[in-house]
Every structure is written in structure tokens, then in C-alpha cells.
Amino acid sequence: MSATHIHATVRATHATPPRARSRGVRFAQPSIAALPKTSTTRCPGLSSRGALRGDDALAASILGGSTATRATHLTSRKPTVVVAAAGGASQTAKGRMCVAISGASGFVGSRLVAKLLAGGHEVRVLTRDVNAARMALRGSMTGGNVTFVSPEKWAAAIPGCTGVVNLAGEPISTRWNPAIKAEIMASRIKATKRIADAIAACEPDRRPGVLVNASAIGFYGTSETRTFDEEAPAGGDYLSKVCQAWEATAEEVERTCDGATRVVVLRLGIVLDRDGGALGKMLPTFQIFAGGPMGDGAQWFSWVHREDAVGIVVESLTNPEMRGPVNVTAPNPVRMGEMCAALGRTLGRPSWLPVPDFAIQALLGEGATVVLQGQKVAPNAALKAGYKFKYKRIDDALQNILR
User: Fold this and answer.
1) What are the residue ranges of helices labelled H in 119-173?
2) Contact 125, 144 (CB under 8 A)
3) What are 253-292's pLDDT values in tens digits?
4) Mean pLDDT, rounded, for 124-143
5) Which end of the chain has less neighbouring CB within 10 Å, N or C?
6) What is the DSSP secondary-structure string of 312-362?
């Protein structure tokens, strides 16, 4: 969560995301056995061995390895979509990936799905609710192969994947109480452990080569004076403890798999784009000339354009130099007041109406410290691994997003 996730809530103004469009997507029937037959083909992905397409191979495995009944293969403009009833995985041809993703319908995950499919890769969506995920991702599926897998089948869908991306976690932009805090922790640990156990149980020749697991810059705690790179120690507040437990669960994969599965932990900053996240909630107040920072505006705002956030996920999947913690923030963080001033300049609106501390504290209670304090974070690991940021400065990012 970022400080600005609360901005529109405090002002009682909410942005409405654009309605997803289908773009000609067709969905397979839930019963895979009822799908029509197609001829066999080589799968776009990891191995040169003859195999079914990714979703076809999954369907065949579900049916006990038979190739007699398979999912329909549509054209590149109409993705094949399968609701998995059981497991299996594909082998893919060189240069192509098969990626399992949890949290795929979220702000970062949905754009990641679109980018992978546009690149000709196969995606397996690990989801708690197949129908909800399928609807949420309709606008992201413009081509390629997509499989939706419910939790009890995750372990069967992960073998044979190139990599796994875990972005799942209960939102934290709410007033905390003991039950909500327990759910914030449990939702992250449970999904991560399910994935870690599935990777560990894979046969060595079908084990994913990389696990890319989300975390957050809240790992470091907050400070107005320190700069945190990946070598900085963990903080001591509640969200830091959540991140520490989350990361430790993911990192266990390296030990259980004897280093065969590379683990990348993405400490996500404040992800910016027009149609969601922090910026999506800030825009309405600025558009009605009521924008301004929260608190005194001196807290650090370590941001990243959504395109770069997705780019770092893909870099983590493909670049063996990416390993361990990686800060997903732009190289030039700003303070909250600077961010709001830049947003005002881009929109041609003033940034003059701050949200006072007491209003945020009344809304969030204990969670207000996350909004009123921040951290200055440096993306040293991504830069060292060779990632080239498209948007290094806040003005350039906002210009791209809003004009």
C-alpha cells in the first residue's frame, strides 16, 4: 500500500476504472472433456520436444495424459482460455515462456498478463475465484494461451512452467484491527507457501527455474533521512514484519530445491498508472481543483511507472542476474509534496489542499503511520542487473500517463 491509496477515501471521492472490453475473447466451457478436438502442435515455450500447446497439454494431463480431447486453439487474436479441472504442464519451444501467475487480476498482474500474451507466451492464472479472474482479465487477453486454475489444482499446474510469479495478497488500505491484520499476514503467507510447496514437489526436470515473489518497500520501515537499498536491514513495524515473513516463505524455495529454482523478491514501491493504484485515486481530487499532499508533504514517495514495474517482473523471469531482493522503484524518488506539485503541473491544476494528519489518523488508526511517513528507496539491484528504466523522473512518468 502507498500513502496515496487513501487520498480519495479521505476526500470521499472515488475514481471509476474504465470498463474492460472483451476484444473478441472466447472462453472455453468449464468441462474440458466437452471441448472439441484439434490436431497436435508444438507448444510455444521452453523445450524443443514435441508437445501439445500449453492449454492442450494441461487438458490432456487432466484427462490422464490422453491427447484425444483438447482445448480449442483459437487464432492469435482470440486467446485460448481453459478452466482447469486438474493439473499438468507444458514443455515449450526455445524463446517462449510458460508462466504461472497468482494475483494476475491485480493492478500489476493484469498488465503483466497482457505483456506476456503479447509476446507469445503462455499464462496460467492461479486464482481463488476462476469466474472473477476470468472476467477481470477480459481486457488483458488479446492473444495467446490462458489457463485458469483454482487453488486445489495449483500444485498440478506449476510443474513444467518456466517460472512462477506470486503477486497475491489481501489489500491493506483499510482501518486495521486484529482480525484484518491477521488476514493481511495470512493471505500472503498462505498463497506463497502453497506455491513454494508445489515447486518443491516438482520432479527436477519439470521444476520452474524461477519464482518471482512480491514484497514491498515497507520491508524497511519508514524514515525521512535514510536511503534504503537492498542491503538495508528490515524495519520493526507491523508491515515490515509482514514483508519479512512473506519473503522468508518464498526464499525457502532456494533451500528446498538446492538452488535449482532462483528466487527473486520484488520490493514494490508506489506503482503509478492512470487507471488504478495510487494515482488513479489521486486524480479525481486534482481534477476538481481540490488536490494536495497528505500530512505535511515531507514524507518520501518512492514511485515506479507501472510499465517499469511489469518490465522488472519480466526481467526477473529472464535474467539470471536477478536474484534475491530487488527494489521496484524509479531511480529518482520524490517527497509527497513534490509528487503532488508535479501532478498539478501536468494536469494544469493547483496542489494546495493538504489532507491534515488528524483526518488520516481518524480514518486509519494505526495504519496512518504508513500514509504519513515514507521511505527513500534506491533500485540498486535492478540497475546492477542491467535493467533500463523507461521512466526515471516523476515529470516524465506523469507526462506519459496523463497526456
Assistant:
1) 130-136, 154-157
2) no
3) 999 999 999 999 999 999 999 998 889 888 999 999 999 9
4) 91
5) C
6) HHHHHHH-TT--EEEEES-SS-EEHHHHHHHHHHHHT-----PBPHHHHHH
